Amino acid sequence: MMTRRGMVAGAAVTALSYTRILGANDRIGLGVIGLGERGTAVMGLFQKNGDVEVRALCDVYGLRLDQAREKSAPNAKTFGDHR
């Protein structure tokens, strides 16, 4: 038979374990379209937050795309067309 104290202790342990799991809203995936001065500046501001990960980069100018990927987001997917 479960006592009230045992139930409360079990619920507390379960609640604590859920706080250690990263959920869908604990990490922000960022996609940047347009990697000129403004786009890279805004991307840099977002990257100051440790919960932001740059996942996608898009620019029609290939050189900017490569520079941004090398500098800030080596694991990001790259696209030459925003569609």
Largest sheet: 3 strands, parallel
Full CATH superfamily name: NAD(P)-binding Rossmann-like Domain
The count of β-strands is 3
Question: What structural category arises from helix and sheet content?
Answer: alpha/beta
Stretches where pLDDT is under 50 for at least 5 consecutive residues are: none
Shape: elongated
Secondary-structure element series: HEHEHE
Overall tally of domains? 1
Question: Measured on Cα atoms, how large is the radius of gyration?
Answer: 21 Å
> How are the strands of the largest sheet arranged?
1-2-3
Work out the helicity level: 40-55%
| pLDDT averaged residue by residue | 79
CATH C-level label:
Alpha Beta
CATH topology annotation: Rossmann fold
Molecular structure report:
With 83 residues, the chain is α/β, with parallel strands linked by helices. The protein has one domain: Rossmann fold (3-Layer(aba) Sandwich). 46% of the residues lie in helices and 19% in strands. The protein is built from 3 helices and 3 strands, in the order αβαβαβ. The protein has helices at 4-19, 37-47, 62-72, and strands at residues 28-33, 52-58, 77-79. A 3-stranded parallel sheet has the order 1-2-3, covered by helices on one side. The radius of gyration is 21 Å and the shape is elongated. The model has no long low-confidence stretch (mean pLDDT 79).
